[in-house]
Amino acid sequence: MSRITPRLAALKAQRRTALIPYLTAGDPDLGTTLALMHTAVAAGADILEIGVPFSDPCADGPVIQAASERALCQGVRLVDVLALVSQFRASDDETPVVLMGYLNPVEIFGYGRFADAAASAGVDGLILVDLPPEEAAQFEPLLAQAGIDLIYLVAPTTTPERARMIAR
């Protein structure tokens, strides 16, 4: 089991909502991102959402697109983001970490290889904005076996039927 479910259960018991800041890995550089991860936790973050830089972040707004571009200019790749999480885990084994990004880098990395590497690094959850549940049949079991939650998005335009399907 990932760290996400127990953290959310604890927050629910405390009648609190989760504070989940988003940071783009590698913006302005990986060392600063690592320091910001620790600072966010010290300031009260319950879960960290770390953006994986991507060359065509079409589902993101201009601020995250620019952050992704700056990180890519630093040469940040998926393997570097996994190493960043591993470094974070060296001193924080409690705070859940969710990676957010796009399917293409994961496909290139390989589904099984990614699931294993992400679990070894200490990743708890994964949001792939361009992976609908209907197309996740091959990947989701690998993540589940590795103890990583695959998190889907619900848009304001999502029908109630589809939202129920995603929630399952």
Structural write-up:
- With 168 residues, the chain is of the alpha/beta class.
- The chain has one domain (4-167): TIM Barrel.
- Helices cover 47% and strands 11% of the residues.
- It contains eight helices and five strands, in the order H-E-H-E-H-H-E-H-H-E-H-E-H.
- It has helices at residues 4-13, 30-42, 62-73, 78-89, 103-109, 111-121, 140-145, 160-167; strands at residues 22-24, 48-51, 97-101, 125-128, 149-151.
- It has a five-stranded parallel beta sheet with strand order 1-2-3-4-5.
- Helix 4 runs parallel beside helix 6.
- The mean pLDDT is 96.
Write the layout of secondary structure elements.
Blueprint: H1 4-13, E1 22-24, H2 30-42, E2 48-51, H3 62-73, H4 78-89, E3 97-101, H5 103-109, H6 111-121, E4 125-128, H7 140-145, E5 149-151, H8 160-167
Parallel strand pairs: 1-2, 2-3, 3-4, 4-5
Helix pairs in contact: 2-4, 4-6
